[in-house]
Amino acid sequence: MYNKSYYVYILASPRNGLLYIGMTNTLARRLAEHQSGEIDGFTKKFGIGKLVYFEVFEDVLNAIDREKQLKRWTRAKKNALVERSNPEWADLSGQFLESE
């Protein structure tokens, strides 16, 4: 059986700057698109490309629901989520891309 993963992720500009929440089935590809500025939009306009948080799902509907949930949260709640697992707001993309 084919096992597909889906990712909900948070990108950030410098700490306490702007946040972007997205969902994808290929996080490495999507990160490369954000970081290269390949896709016009919010992340390109504001230079948001640092991966500070992500979650993995096996079901696309659960991933979509989680993305929508996070987008409704207050900024303080989103910050607290990131800081629980990544208190330094380090860029996780290099670490993640190496393991992909």
List the keywords:
alpha+beta; 100 residues; GIY-YIG endonuclease; globular; 5 helices; three-stranded antiparallel beta sheet
Strand order of the largest sheet: 2-1-3
Domains (count): 1
Low-confidence stretches: none
Q: Any idea of the CATH class?
A: Alpha Beta
- Beta-strand fraction estimate: 15-25%
What is the fold-level CATH name, i.e. the topology? GIY-YIG endonuclease
User: In angstroms, what separates the terminal alpha carbons?
Assistant: 20 Å
How many helices in DSSP terms? 5
The topology string of helices and strands comes to EEHHEHHH
Summed over residues and divided by their number, the pLDDT gives a mean of 89
Number of E-state strands: 3
**Helix content bin:** 40-55%
Major beta sheet summary = 3 strands, antiparallel
Structural class: alpha+beta
CATH architecture grouping: 3-Layer(aba) Sandwich
Rounded radius of gyration (Å): 13 Å
Report on this model:
This protein has helices at 27-36, 42-46, 60-72, 75-85, 93-99, and strands spanning 6-12, 19-24, 50-57. The protein has a three-stranded antiparallel sheet, with helices on both faces. The longest helix has 13 residues, at 60-72. By secondary structure, it is an alpha+beta fold. It has a single domain (6-99), classed as GIY-YIG endonuclease (3-Layer(aba) Sandwich), CATH 3.40.1440. Strand 1 (6-12) and strand 2 form a beta hairpin. The model has no long low-confidence stretch (mean pLDDT 89).
